[in-house]
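Interim report, section 4.2 (structural modelling).
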Amino acid sequence: MKRVLFVGLLAVLALVWAVGTPAGTEIRNQASASYIDSAGLPQTTTSNEVVTVVQEVYGVSITPDGSDEANPGQTKSGLAGGPVYFNYVVTNTGNTTDTINLSIEQGAADDFDFSSHTVYLDANCNAQLDTGESAVTSVNLAADASACLIVEATIPSSATDGQMGNLNITGTSQGDSGETDTNNWARATVSGTGVISATKSADPSGPVAPGGTITYTIHGSNTGSDDAGGVASVANVDGNDENGILVSDPIPTGTTYVRNSASGTTIAGTASVIYQTSSGWTASEPTNPADVIAVGLLIKGSGAFFTQGAWFDLSFQVQVDAGAAPGSAIENTAHVQYDPDGNSSTDNNATVNTNTTTTTVATVAGVQNGPQNDPDADGTGFDSNAGYTDPTGTTWYYTETTGDPNDAETIDDDRSPVYGGDTVYFENTLKNTGNAPDRFTLSLEGVPDGWVCQLVAADGTTPISGPVGPIDPTNTFNYVVKCLIPADEVTASNTEITVTATSENDPAVSNPVKDVVPPVQPGYGVDIAQHGNAGDGNDSNDNPTIPSVDPGTTVLIPFDVYNTGHNSDTYDLSAELSPNGFPSTIYPDANCDGEMDDPTPAPVTNTGLLSTDPPNDHKCFILSVEVPAGQAPGSENVTITATSNANPSVTDYITTTITVNPVVSLDFTPDRSGTVTSPGTIVYTHTLTNNGNTSATVSFSVSGSTHPTWTYQISTDGGSTWYDPADASVGLGAGANQEIQVRVIVPDGEPIGAVDAVTVTATAGSATASVTDTTTVVGGDLRLEKQVDKTEAVPGETLTYTITAINIGTADLKQVIVSDPLPSYTDFVSVSASTDISGGTVLYSTDGVNWSSSAPTSLNAGDAIYVGVDTDGDNDISDTDLMPPGKSITITFVVRVQ
Amino acid sequence: MVGRGRFLVAGLFLAALALAASGLELELASYKVLKFTNDEGEVVEKTVPAAEVAPGDVLLWVLTAKNTSGKTLKQVALTIPIPPRTVYIAGSAHPLKLGEVVIEPLFSYDGVHFSRPPLKKRIRVKEGDRFVEKEVVVPPEAYTHVRWLVPRLEPGVKVQVSLRTRVR
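Predicted structure of the assembly:
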């Protein structure tokens, strides 16, 4: 049996992209790093992303190959003047769409040149030239795509039996004319005998998925110049040797015969379908289709019964095995055994092969994408106690909603509560349920505004850029979705984010899973309270109570700020005081003892960082409030507020009241002394000042008098109205002062020299102040006059008092001493005196005891000057110093207003 | 800008984190490796910026990491993924020498488990009508990530690691 071998198509196409990454594909890469920082916290970072584009490459392949004229890849028989048909498959082996230009070359080492040749596109790849299939000089193919061609070549009518002609078809890439395939020689032989030419087609001509069926059709006809016949004992069918033409087609590896699918016809002879098993040929279709190793058509007839032009058909179906490797090629070639001259001699029996059909096992893509370890979301594999531990050490627990495609993985907020500012993690699992390694693109939908979600590997850090994989069939892949929730986010319901995994082998294949975030609780919180009570969960004990204070004091209010949120934060501190706006400053209390630290720290307006790990992180502060001196009694409201910097809507405050005590304080000056006649009166002037912060009503009392007949009165209106001390009172506003006059009325008959020193006390509430007024009785015939040169004076100006004492009586007056105290608010300037008492010397004293003829040059406040006239020359004033009637002493007393 | 194709800044995630730390700067660059014979007849290599590559070309990936935090960083794991459409060229990732310390690269086929070669994985294959689990050696062509784990990186120190891939 002469077999003509064909070189098959390209071997296994393992992966869709093995032939070359498509032009224009972007190769994207981004590096990442994780590390522990100086504070011991885990951190992650990523690099820039680099993008490189894949450029075009070109390539051509045409099969079957025939290296040269001596080694044609296929041989067909034909009649002189008739056509032969050569089948080819042309493939674009580049990575981008290309046009392959085709041209035919005639052989030189052969017996004849074909009289004409045309290349046709065999659009349905059935190896037959059908009406409507057009002539081409080029084909345009996408990367990896193929097209079937039929070259029709006409044998010249001058050719004789046994002669042969060769031709070659070449393909040249238009994208790169250096890419060619030029080794596709074919040969036509002119035959004088009957020749059966047979072709085979496979339907569908494109890829078939595992489990799909291929229909093979073999069509043969006698294209020779004579009648053909059968071969003796061509097959032993059910134990009987049979003669005839045998068409046989082995069931290809990776497929299984489909029962009841075989049928055949012939227009010459009788045809019956036979089946080959391991025991041989049989006419009864085996009940187990796996037992069929070949399908055949036995065409019986006697002698040269298969006349010129006679034809037959055989067709049957095979099913692609479920485990057939995707991309692998199922090749099939049928054979025909016949006797070219039909004369039953066995020495020229011929076997002819059809073209080889190649069917690619299709890649079927499939993906499941579901909750952690349960890609098909049927409940098995998912463990609600497993959770996912993220790079910071937090474990996220989930609950599962089963049932694809509405499956979901929800964070269990009983065990994993979610707060604003958190980064949440979901671990999902996908599974390749296709029949070929595949990559899957992951995409996110439903991410709310402001949230930042990222797809990362199962380590929680390495970013996923581009599709994940390659993942082998039935294998799984875990990935993580991590989302940063904005600091101020608070939600009342779930947030659903959908992750879809899409197959790269077949982008129409995808599967979603929902990652669900439960209601987001507030991530930030603050509690401010009086010292010791922050963060205790009890708002009713937050406000401090302060004892009342006097004006001019500093009030310290210690308070604490506690972070009640879920994330670290810093807080602005402010104090509002109203209605008076007392000045205030906030100081840190580093040792939290409620007392000002020593040395005094710098004031602050912010708490600094308060973390939530470790918990109970709070800081202590003191608000220092200065109550101004002289502040009127009353209340000042104090409000201290802490406001989160991360989320300014988070704020808390405390209030309290500073109560300013009313304070009364009196000042009553100066002490006075003076002389009075009997009878007589004298008035002392004092100044009463209210140094408290509130109005006071002042009452008076006089005590210490040893002269019960003397009368003491008080005037508070400048001398217009006089009151008994018990009845006198005056109201003074805070800071105000009032002139108070004390009048002494001495009755007649009091001895000269009688002295009464009394204490006049002003009282308002608990405050008192007093002055002492000392009154001395002097002789009644002595008239004293006192004049001053100005009625008004301003500080710095001098006042000159002229005091005249005259003896208006008829007898000598003894021991006349005129005294005058230095007025309040004045400084002594000078004193001088003169007299018209003859033989008298003016003597001065500042204490009434020690006398000098020199006038004093200084006088202390509250002191008095005393002037007398020494008439007996003893340098002293005693009762031997006389003032005769009508004589006088004149004193000039100059003071300066302070 | 030598040595990079078009590049996009992917800093969105880091910029949005409220209290994110910076301190380790990463820079990734890619080059095409060309082999040609020089005038002396030797085969030499030249690297050029990898703007465009063809199937079969060799790409050199260089990752530079610098500690800009001012403090010592620990357990610094530098990872270069093997991008899709490319295949790791075995032996092209060299150990990193930092003073006395030699850091061997670790490899992964899934981005999660890293180890020294040979890498093993368990897969399910069909034998007859059943699926069985088998442990197979993962060939270098199936590696998806390469990592160097630096125990300590002092402030200001810059390190560089690299590997090569072939474009499918």
